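Friendly challenge for the regulars: who can give me the structure tokens for this chain first? No prize, just bragging rights.
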Amino acid sequence: MDRRTALAEAFRVLKPGGLLIGVGVTRFTSMMDGSWEGYLADPRFVRIVRRDLRTGEHRNPQNVPAYWTTAFFAHPDELTSEIGAAGFRVKGTFAVEGYAWWVPGLSQKWQDSTFRHRLLEFLRSTEQERTLMGMGPHILCVGVKPPR
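First reply, four minutes later:
Bragging rights claimed.
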């Protein structure tokens, strides 16, 4: 099932005023992950990333476990516009992890309450920043079905 079909069905079954929470993997995720993990040394993975960036369609034809599965990635603007095109009023689009995904040693740093509170403060203040939206692996868009 494609996203448009899923959104149309969600619009059909929701009551007026009902909320839709749409979540997607950003189109840039495999490029970033592949850069950190060294997968860009593999020409097969480079082809996967090129397709991801061009179309959002992630295919792993050799079924290399580290290269993930078949999936459809979204540009943040694409997810927002698809939800709007399905008839929902978009209330907001948010970065889920935001730039925290890039913080080296995050699990250890997270134990420091001062660091954690400051990180959360800055994540909240940038979660809707359009220029940073694709920096993390996931995005979330909230839509509401308008009253009749």
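The chain has a mean pLDDT of 95. The chain has two domains: 1-24+76-148, 27-73. Your move, everyone else.
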